[in-house]
Amino acid sequence: MCYKSLETIVKNSTNIVFFGGAGVSTESSIPDFRSAKGLYNVKNDLKFSPEVILSHSFFINHTEDFFKFYKTNMIFTNAVPNAAHITLAELENKNKLKAIITQNIDGLHQMAGSKNVYELHGSIHRNSCMKCNKSFSLNYILASKSIVPICDSCGGIVKPDVVLYEEGLDMDILESSIKAISIADTLIVGGTSLVVYPAANLIKYFNGNNLILINKSPTQYDNQANLVINDNIGKVLSTVCASFI
C-alpha cells in the first residue's frame, strides 16, 4: 500500500527534491556512521573516536593521523552507484526531480548521472591546497608518496573539501538547498536518521504537499510526514519508479 501511494505521489509531482544521508550509499558497500557496523564503531589504533579524528582541530594538530584514518575509512574507490542513485538520476532526466541534497561525500550521485546535486558536507573528489588554493583530484591524494598530500606548486598541505566537525557548511550550497526545498511540491527524505544538524533542520523549509520519509529505522520527523516507509531506499525507489522511467 505504501509503495502504491508513493508511486501515485511521484507520478503527480512536477518538482521533487530528494534529501539523502548515509543510508543511500550503504547499498554501495559504503558504511554509515551510527549503525552497529558504522564508522563511529570502527576500532582504530589512534585511541581517539572517529568524531574527534574528523574534527578541524584534530586535522590541524594531528594531520598525519587524520589522513591515515581518512584514507582508510572515508574513501571507497570501488564503490559504484546503486539502485537509489540510478533511479534518482533517471527521475531528474525525466524532469520530475529538480535537485538532490546529500550529506554524503562519495560523489555517487554524479557518477550515476545526476546533475543538480548539492553536497552539504563536501566531496572526497575535490581537494585544494591550504596555501595557494590549487585544486587536486582524489587520485592525487591517493597517489601521494607521503601520508599528508603536499601541493606540487607551493608545498602547502592539500586538504579534502569535506566539512569536518567544528567547520561550518558552505553557505552558498546551504542557501541553494533551502531554496530548492522551499519551492518543491514533494520532498523525499531517504537514508538519514535526521539527527545531524544543521542539515536535519532543512525539513522545516518545506512548504509543499508531500513529505516522504524512507529510512530503515524511525526518525523524529515521522509524525510530520505524509508517508513513512521503513525499508531499503534503493529497493523502494526502483520499485516505485519502474513503471514510468
TrEMBL record:
GO terms for cellular component: cytoplasm. Its cofactor is Zn(2+). Binds 1 zinc ion per subunit. Residues 1-245 form the Deacetylase sirtuin-type domain. It catalyses: N(6)-acetyl-L-lysyl-[protein] + NAD(+) + H2O = 2''-O-acetyl-ADP-D-ribose + nicotinamide + L-lysyl-[protein]. Keywords: Cytoplasm, Metal-binding, NAD, Transferase, Zinc. HAMAP family: Sirtuin_ClassU. NAD(+) binds at A22, T26, F33, R34, Q103, I105, D106, H121, T192, S193, N215, I233. It comes from Clostridium estertheticum subsp. estertheticum. InterPro entries: DHS-like_NAD/FAD-binding_dom (IPR029035), NAD-dep_sirtuin_deacylases (IPR050134), Sirtuin (IPR003000), Sirtuin_cat_small_dom_sf (IPR026591), Sirtuin_class_U (IPR028628), Ssirtuin_cat_dom (IPR026590). Pfam families: SIR2. Transmembrane segments: none annotated. It is found in: Cytoplasm. NAD-dependent protein deacetylase which modulates the activities of several enzymes which are inactive in their acetylated form. It is an enzyme of class 2 (transferase). Nicotinamide binds at F33, I105, D106. Belongs to the sirtuin family. Class U subfamily. The active site is at H121 (proton acceptor). Its EC number is 2.3.1.286. This is NAD-dependent protein deacetylase. GO terms for molecular function: histone deacetylase activity, NAD-dependent; NAD+ binding; zinc ion binding. Zn(2+) binds at C129, C132, C151, C154.
